Each structure stands twice: as structure tokens, then as C-alpha cells.
Amino acid sequence: MKIPENYKFTKDHEFVLVEGNTATVGITDYAQGELGDIIFIDFTKSEGETVAHGDTVCSIEAVKTVSEVFSPVSGKIVAVNSGINDKASAVNEDPYGEGWMFKIEMSDSSELGTLLDAKAYSELVGA
């Protein structure tokens, strides 16, 4: 199981890669493993919409279950990986790369302080 050192994580198993004022969000390697084969991503928010910390942005349909993905920070969605449904398996195969879900232009970067670092996330999932 991969847990990149330079990422932040939520207790709900989303990852956050911060580049400047933009946060790239998806689900962790641990989460995709727990969900099983991912079939479809249903985006409930779209590019240009403003979201608050904790808002649902999309849901993941997997063979085992359906799970929601929450926004780990507040801001404006600047990109959604809508092409992911052409290859939903990318979330299983490369969750931190090709399998990203959305990008947010953060409105309050102090919210990053509520997220877990790689060490704390490793402890959470027992890695």
C-alpha cells in the first residue's frame, strides 16, 4: 500500500496533493483496495462550483459498495477528472496519479492543518 510522504490525508481516506493554492483530491490506495473494483464515478459537483469543507463532491460505485468522496478543503472546483469514467480502473491502478478525482482552488489554506500527514495516516490504517 502506497502512502506518499508529501501528501495530506483525511480520516475518510481522501488524499490531498497541494500545489500552490490548488489541492488535487482523490481516494487513497487503502480506500481503493477496500472498495474493490471501481465501476463508475458520479460527480455531484462540477467545475466552477464552490464547495465547503466536508461537502460531497462525487460518489464512487464499486463492485462491493457505493462510497461518497468529500471535499477536504473549501474553495472552487477548478477541474474534475470526468474522463475517469472511460477508465474507472485508473482509480484502482493509480489512485495518486491518473485516478485523481477533482482539483480545488482553496479559499482557506488553514484547513490543511486539520488533515493527517503520511505518518498519522499510516497509523490510522495500520500500515
What features would you highlight for this structure?
single chain, about 130 residues, alpha+beta, OB fold (Dihydrolipoamide Acetyltransferase, E2P), six-stranded antiparallel sheet, three-stranded antiparallel sheet, 9 strands, about 15% helix, globular
What is the spatial order of strands in the main beta sheet?
A: 1-2-3-9-8-5
* Gap between N and C termini: 8 Å
Beta-strand segment tally: 9
The whole-angstrom Rg is 13 Å
- Which series of helices and strands comes N to C? EEEHEEEEEHEH
Main beta-sheet annotation: 6 strands, antiparallel
CATH topology: OB fold (Dihydrolipoamide Acetyltransferase, E2P)
* CATH architecture descriptor name: Beta Barrel
Describe the structure.
The protein has helices spanning 29-35, 89-93, 118-125; strands at residues 8-9, 14-19, 22-27, 38-43, 50-51, 56-62, 66-70, 75-80, 102-106. The protein has 127 residues and is α+β, with helices and mostly antiparallel strands. The chain has one domain (8-107): OB fold (Dihydrolipoamide Acetyltransferase, E2P) (Beta Barrel). The strands form two sheets. Strands 1-2-3-9-8-5 form a six-stranded antiparallel beta sheet. The protein has a three-stranded antiparallel beta sheet with strand order 4-6-7. A hairpin with a 3-residue loop joins strand 6 (56-62) and strand 7 (66-70). The longest helix is centred in the last third of the chain and has 8 residues, at 118-125. It is globular, with a radius of gyration of 13 Å. The relative contact order is 0.27. The mean pLDDT is 95.
